[in-house]
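Two entries, shown back to back:
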Amino acid sequence: MNQLIEQIQASRLNRTYSEEEHLLIQEGGYVSPTRNLFDDILIAISLKKPVLLKGPSGSGKTRLAQSISALFQQPMQSVNCSVDLDAEALLGFKTIVTKEGQSVIEFIDGPVVTAMKRGHILYIDEINMAKPETLPILHSLLDHRRMLTNPFTGEVIVAHEDFSVISAINEGYIGTSPMNEALKNRFVSFSIPYLEAAQLRKVLEDAVPEAEASVVDTIMNLSGDLSKQAANGLLADEAASVRSLIDALQLAVHMPVNRAVMYAIAELLEDKMERDLVNELTATWVK
């Protein structure tokens, strides 16, 4: 492991977290599709660079962030972006509480403010799903200043030295929009591809150890077909996602493979032609 990563890991492992914070430390398990990808991302995180993970649905972006949390034993605050995301969802909100018999207004920190103050990892999922006007509030947080002024309280918040930011995007999906250049330029960007066949098989076997080898073989064969059709533009990327394949394999332990694939993969697709194609591909491998 890179010496810089080891130094950062050692410093963070020595930190003391509350019982509540320990519940926010994720499990690992990410398998890197290339030799250096995971270590290179860790180096960027160690240098306090905001990291942007780009890749198709199910390629392991969230699992990668969780694995960094596990490696550094560092709690993770998550933001799931949508068109409804607003400043309150990011920073927090004011509420009325009772203290010593008096009603007082108190500010409840949101995930961004909590991560900044406590030195947690901030994971922003599907950042290109958010409305462009929502995210500029994060600009000063993502550059060399590593601070922001809370518009709800006027508080100037300087990020804890361990604070890290990881964002993820699914490029080209319905409902997404190109990232604003001013926002994108604040990140170091990494492409996260799907796993190679041998790596995928190990992930499937580790995730569903009770599955028979013949069933794993069938899912692997189907995965190859799904990936080819997705590459040719005939299927949505999520049809070949690792997440969907694991779901299908887990179901296939308890039911026929064709039904497992139908429920875990085909029925999630909106286009009927795509659903039919998945079922047809499955039928070629299920006798």
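entry 2 starts here
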Amino acid sequence: MTKRDVVFPPGRQALYEQNRYSPAVRANGMLFVSGQVGSREDGSREPELESEVRRAFENLNAILSAAGCTFDDVVDVTLFLVDPEGIIDTVWKVLAEFWGDAPHPTLTGVGVTWLYGFNFEIKVVAQLSKEDARG
């Protein structure tokens, strides 16, 4: 089996190890990022929805940056939302701060009943540059 080429953002490795998953894995020129929620460094949730969504994007950007990427390199996005109708307007408001200009990545939104105490999660796949694809 090939060893996974894992990407960790600065300062959060212990949190990922505690929860037994990798924040992102490089493979075949792509970066596969685990779903990111609005958790603080200690794993607790931001108390307000807008802050929670913003923190999820900040956590995502930290992983992308650690891999030499930006949101502009993202080609596919999956959003998971508890109570989609109740939170979608807030999500779109915050998303616009991070999304960038067209052309936009593909997007799938999924309504869920539980996200480990969170309201929002974002999972992406990004294209690595040739240099970053080698790790």
